[in-house]
């Protein structure tokens, strides 16, 4: 952080939009509380053709370019501990009747694939979502871990805004930004309205870029992803719209270099820490976007549940869209 970089609190303001306390002093779900049974039924109304899309990227690709990751994280390390080779050895377990089996283990960054962030994943000034003490993250997240999200399950009406297609591009440029006014304009051009309590799914084309570029060195140069850019008006829009969940095909869900503020990842703090918006990152949206563009239907039933990792800071997820 340079001397001229303001601290997060200075950027977001002492009176930053907040939902702390809205769902009680022990809440760990934040805006996902908006997704009640009525919202599930509202989502179901947007199923028309029965097409199913899964939004997780492949986990543990061994061929180039591997898996897209936040710098510093590593892809899943999966290895067989039992397979047909094992059964050649004398000490292989024996089963009556001759059944053989394969088994494996994996070492993973829980945020190293398509993932839900725990609401407590980021903080500033020593406090995370709902005002919980950030020291509750030491060794294992006691408050606002990913588990409550996993227990609940996220189901509702989803709406896809295809920013790349709207701008006539295969993918947005490095560092290219957009805000709520751009989202509204793109949605209007698509003929869909972003309604209160919608799971907001935004395509930038960035995952396609990762696989087609096939060059991690270039991809990570300056690590300037495109994405949403911070403004107070944007945060107020999210609060007013009561958006429960933001899903994108980028690693960080927001532009990763903030030239106009210098503060890194302010929307993680403004949306997740202060409002309680669940963040889902690294989603594969291209197949869904192609189908939506083909018949002009951009709303659907969205359903997802991250793995039930006790005390996890996040967890992999394979969201499902039915349209
Ligand atoms: C960090 O963990 C810093 O970012 P993300 O939530 O995008 O993975």
From TrEMBL:
<dbReference type="Pfam" id="PF04199">
    <property type="entry name" value="Cyclase"/>
</dbReference>
<keyword id="KW-0378">Hydrolase</keyword>
<protein>
    <submittedName>
        <fullName>Cyclase family protein</fullName>
        <ecNumber>3.5.-.-</ecNumber>
    </submittedName>
</protein>
<dbReference type="InterPro" id="IPR007325">
    <property type="entry name" value="KFase/CYL"/>
</dbReference>
<dbReference type="InterPro" id="IPR037175">
    <property type="entry name" value="KFase_sf"/>
</dbReference>
<feature type="region of interest" description="Disordered">
    <location>
        <begin position="1"/>
        <end position="22"/>
    </location>
</feature>
<dbReference type="GO" id="GO:0016787">
    <property type="term" value="F:hydrolase activity"/>
</dbReference>
């Amino acid at each position: 952080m340079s001397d001229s970089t303001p601290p997060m609190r200075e950027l977001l303001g002492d009176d930053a939009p907040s939902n702390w306390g809205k769902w009680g002093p022990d809440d760990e779900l934040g805006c996902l509380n908006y997704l009640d049974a009525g919202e599930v039924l509202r989502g179901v109304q947007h199923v028309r053709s029965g097409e199913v899309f899964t939004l997780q990227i492949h986990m543990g690709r061994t061929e180039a370019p591997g898996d897209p990751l936040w710098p510093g994280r590593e892809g899943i390390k999966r290895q067989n501990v039992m397979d047909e080779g094992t059964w050649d050895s004398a000490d292989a377990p024996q089963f009556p009747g001759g059944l053989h089996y394969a088994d494996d283990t994996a070492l993973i960054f829980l945020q190293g694939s398509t993932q839900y962030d725990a609401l407590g994943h980021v903080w500033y000034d020593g406090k995370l979502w709902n005002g919980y003490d950030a020291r509750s993250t030491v060794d294992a997240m006691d408050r606002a871990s990913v588990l409550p999200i996993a227990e609940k399950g996220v189901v509702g009406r989803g709406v896809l805004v295809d920013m790349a297609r709207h701008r006539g591009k295969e993918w947005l440029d490095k560092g290219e930004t957009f805000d709520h006014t751009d989202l509204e304009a793109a949605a209007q051009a698509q003929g869909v309205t972003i309604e209160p309590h919608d799971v907001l799914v935004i395509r930038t084309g960035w995952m396609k870029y990762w696989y087609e570029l096939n060059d991690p060195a270039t991809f990570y140069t300056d690590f300037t992803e495109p994405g949403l850019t911070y403004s107070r008006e944007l945060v107020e829009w999210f609060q007013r719209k009561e958006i429960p969940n933001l899903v994108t095909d980028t690693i960080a869900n927001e532009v990763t270099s903030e030239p106009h503020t210098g503060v890194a990842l302010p929307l993680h703090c403004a949306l997740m820490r202060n409002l309680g918006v669940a963040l889902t990152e690294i989603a594969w949206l291209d197949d869904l976007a192609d189908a939506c563009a083909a018949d002009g239907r951009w709303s659907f039933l969205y359903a997802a549940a991250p793995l039930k990792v006790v005390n996890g800071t996040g967890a992999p997820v394979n969201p499902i869209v039915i349209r």
